[in-house]
């Protein structure tokens, strides 16, 4: 491939991942704007997701290989818990608490895989943990505490998803499709008991945005973008999501995170971005040496 084509591919990959981050960042405003319960919202999102992902990827094996199946379970739980968390706490807090995942992945590599951590990595992980604590402590009424706990649980399952899908035996594309089926089967029955179920134009608009853009196109963009740029750049560009997430929520619903949540939010984003830059810095040092 020529240098011009490589540059073109790189730019296209960056745009696709930036698009992914912005579309994923619409989760907060969509969920806050739909009066349905979180399970009904998840069912609608996954129902459309099954169709869109199926059209994009014409054939799936859907055989129940252990690692792929476990990864799909973790992905399904992550989505459901995150939806429930957004309904009960602020969108900013929900997304920040999900960033407990890098801490758990870090601990997994240290404790289970016996990889000795670098000092800077340890400091960054402690900073992320501190940021999560600040966000958790922002509002401590019963509803927000439950929402915060669900946000933390989504971070735990997200870490499990990352660890399992990083195994060569797991097929992340197949797992993503499988997780949609799982979530839809679990969540669909709740639609029949949802007292807030309504089909006015405003609700249908946000359901459409959530299912088609925030989930469907976002995952298609992500799958294509990952093939064009490396994992480090992908992870860095995806930090746009938590930064962008609270903005449309504030503009549409007027929801503002508290002072502690904002401080925690800033700490986590800076720490995660710094963590993403570590391999780049190390690579440059090796070249210089």
* Rg measurement, Å: 19 Å
Q: Beta-sheet strand percentage? A: under 5%
Overall, the morphology is: globular
Mean pLDDT: 84
Largest sheet: none
Please give the oligomerization state of what you see: single chain
Number of strands: 0
What do these coordinates show?
By secondary structure, this protein is mainly α. The protein is 77% helix and 0% strand. Helix 5 runs parallel beside helix 8. The radius of gyration is 19 Å and the shape is globular. The mean pLDDT is 84.
Feature tags:
mainly alpha, 289 residues
Describe the protein's topology.
Blueprint (H helix, E strand, L loop, with lengths): L2 H22 L2 H7 L4 H19 L9 H23 L2 H7 L3 H11 L7 H18 L5 H24 L6 H16 L13 H26 L4 H7 L2 H5 L1 H8 L5 H30 L1
């Amino acid at each position: 491939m020529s240098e011009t084509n490589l540059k073109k591919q790189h730019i296209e990959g960056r745009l696709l991942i930036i698009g992914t981050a912005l579309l994923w960042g619409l989760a907060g405003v969509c969920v806050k704007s739909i009066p349905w319960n979180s399970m009904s919202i998840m069912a609608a999102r996954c129902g459309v997701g099954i169709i869109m992902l199926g059209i994009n990827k014409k054939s799936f094996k859907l055989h129940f290989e252990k690692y792929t199946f476990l990864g799909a379970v973790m992905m399904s739980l992550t989505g459901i818990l995150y939806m429930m968390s957004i309904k009960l706490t602020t969108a900013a807090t929900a997304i920040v608490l999900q960033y407990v995942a890098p801490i758990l992945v870090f601990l997994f590599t240290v404790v289970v895989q016996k990889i000795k951590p670098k000092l800077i990595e340890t400091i960054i992980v402690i900073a992320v943990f501190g940021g999560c604590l600040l966000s958790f402590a922002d509002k401590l009424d019963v509803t927000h505490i439950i929402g915060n706990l669900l946000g933390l649980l989504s971070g735990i399952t997200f870490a499990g998803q990352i660890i399992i899908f990083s195994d060569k035996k797991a097929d992340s594309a197949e797992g993503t499709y499988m997780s949609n089926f799982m979530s839809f089967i679990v969540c669909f029955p709740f639609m029949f008991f949802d007292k807030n179920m309504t089909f006015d134009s405003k609700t249908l608009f946000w359901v459409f945005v959530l299912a088609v853009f925030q989930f469907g196109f976002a995952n298609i963009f992500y799958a294509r973008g990952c093939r064009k740029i490396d994992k480090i750049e992908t992870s860095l560009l995806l930090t746009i999501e938590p930064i962008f997430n609270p903005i449309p929520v504030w503009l549409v619903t007027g929801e503002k995170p508290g002072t502690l949540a904002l401080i925690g939010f800033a700490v986590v984003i800076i720490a995660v971005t710094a963590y993403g830059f570590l391999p780049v810095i190390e690579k440059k040092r090796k070249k210089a040496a």
